[in-house]
Design brief:
single chain; alpha/beta; Rossmann fold; 2 domains; 10-stranded mixed β-sheet; 9-stranded mixed β-sheet; elongated
Length: 474
């Protein structure tokens, strides 16, 4: 937690990464229009007011009522803070005579100092330039920051509309302690947002470029790391959706409406996505079938073997007799055969023979469960490596046909290294095509079929097992 002698930057991860912002510092937030600068600066004020500190907002860009309305829609009730005596809004947005503006600004700064504000937001320096001209604006800014920031000890957040690298506001002259540059970036042909830490006086910046979203306010997307619960508990089944099967992940159900019954899902993994990372989005789906007494057959992707599959089940509380009865893992026969009944070993030389062994195993699971609805997971890269492109496609096409006729769900996984046409051939048999990528450390999921926006993936361990949470990048 940020101590009262310091100011929060309004976002938990920024506070964690950059440490505490001493009072009396200048924070500059720059970027093109529509990148989230006003929301960022308003959130700095709001979060610190939630801690009992006073914040003043000097607006040269938009009137008070519009500001209040927009921020309330993001969960920030500035009127309530105003009623508590923690917030003051100074509306200097109306067009004014330059000399009158100077006097108004002078009186406003005197009042902010007399009120003993802890945080001052100036939105924006660019509007000040338009009102009084560049030279006069710089002079006023120097006076403002020397009196308010340095002498008054008020942490000031200044917004600059123009791109920082154009030098449009003379940033170097303001001697800012922290400088953030916000931008929109296309990621996978979808809207992405990036924050760059240009300057952070006295702080070690572990990640100078981070993604963020404006969903529900300003939120930095923390670089993804896999986490495990201290006290593991059994996975609680997620109810089916009106569309069909649950994905096992409530947030993903909300996006897709679930997976279609008798359907095929293509799960594509991008560069630099580790095995443990895509597992957190695939395993809950498979586990949700098993805890409901349905059969599961797995042909692991390359780099994953039967033991890894078993350990993944254990993490969600699927172990012992339940795992042995309902799960089958098909893999190439190693030099020393497995003693586990749930491991099905194949030769890997004869496609027809191996697929028949697969089909026999599906029939076994159907007899055990009394249901034709068996879930299949297939690592397409393993099929491609073992049988080549044509037989890989035949295997998937046959299994897709069986799934559509008999019921259940087929998930086919592709990894980097497969040629684009191979990935496309897998997608051709799918009802749903999802892709998982990493950017700036963040784990991002999106749909190609159906098309969706980007979602940042995080993990919730509160139930005793890893449950993905999805945050839209807006």
């Amino acid at each position: 937690m940020v101590r009262r002698g310091f100011i929060s930057l309004g976002d938990p991860y920024l506070d964690k990464m950059l440490g505490r912002v001493p009072r009396g510092n200048l924070v500059l937030v720059a970027g093109s229009p529509g990148t989230g600068k006003t929301i960022f600066s308003a959130q700095v004020a709001y979060v610190n007011m939630m801690r009992g500190l006073k914040a003043a907002y000097l607006s040269l860009a938009e009137p008070k009522e519009l500001f209040m309305q927009c921020m309330k829609g993001l969960g920030m009730n500035f009127k309530r803070m105003e009623a508590k005596g923690l917030f003051k809004f100074y509306d200097l947005a109306s067009p004014r005579d330059p000399s009158f503006m100077e006097r108004m600004l002078e009186e406003t700064l005197k009042e902010v100092l007399a009120w003993r504000a802890n945080v001052l937001v100036v939105d924006s320096l660019s509007a000040l330039i338009q009102l009084v001209g560049r030279d006069k604006a710089r002079s006023l800014a120097h006076t403002m920051f020397s009196r308010v920031v340095r002498s008054g000890g008020i942490t000031t957040v200044a917004v600059a509309e123009a791109p920082l690298r154009e030098g449009a506001v003379g940033v170097e002259e303001f001697v800012a302690d922290f400088v953030f540059f916000l931008s929109k970036r296309e990621i996978e042909a979808r809207l992405g947002r990036q924050l760059e830490v240009v300057k952070a006086r006295g702080a070690r910046v572990a990640h100078p470029r981070l993604l963020f979203t404006l969903h529900g306010g300003f939120k930095v997307i923390e670089p993804f790391t896999c986490k495990h619960p201290e006290e593991p508990r059994r996975f609680q089944p997620v109810e089916e959706t009106p569309r069909g099967y649950s994905t096992g992940i409530p947030d993903l159900d909300a996006v897709l409406g679930g997976y279609p019954k008798n359907g095929v899902v293509h799960f594509e993994v991008g560069e630099n996505v580790e095995t443990s990372m895509y597992h957190v989005l695939v395993v809950p789906t498979l586990v949700n079938f098993v805890v409901k007494g349905r059969g599961l057959i797995v042909f692991p992707s390359m780099g994953v073997d039967a033991r890894v599959v078993q350990l993944s089940g254990h993490e969600y509380g699927i172990r012992g007799g339940e795992f042995d009865r309902l799960v089958r893992v098909v893999q190439l026969a190693p030099p020393h055969p497995s003693a586990e009944d749930w491991v099905v070993e194949i030769g890997g030389e004869d496609f027809k023979e191996d697929y028949q062994r697969w089909l026999d195993t599906v029939r076994e699971l159907q007899r055990i469960t009394g249901s034709s609805e068996v879930t299949s997971f297939i690592g397409a890269d393993s099929l491609h490596s073992q049988y080549g492109e044509d037989d890989m496609y035949r295997f998937l096409a046959l299994e897709a046909l069986r799934t559509r006729v008999e019921g259940g769900l087929l998930i086919a996984l592709t990894k980097p290294g497969l040629e684009e046409r191979v990935v496309k051939s897998v997608s051709n048999v799918a009802n749903i095509h999802l892709k998982l990528v990493r950017r700036r450390g963040a784990l991002l999921l999106y749909g190609l079929i159906p098309r969706t926006e980007l979602y940042a993936v995080s993990l919730d361990l509160s139930k005793g097992y890893p449950m993905p949470r999805l945050t839209p990048i807006l």
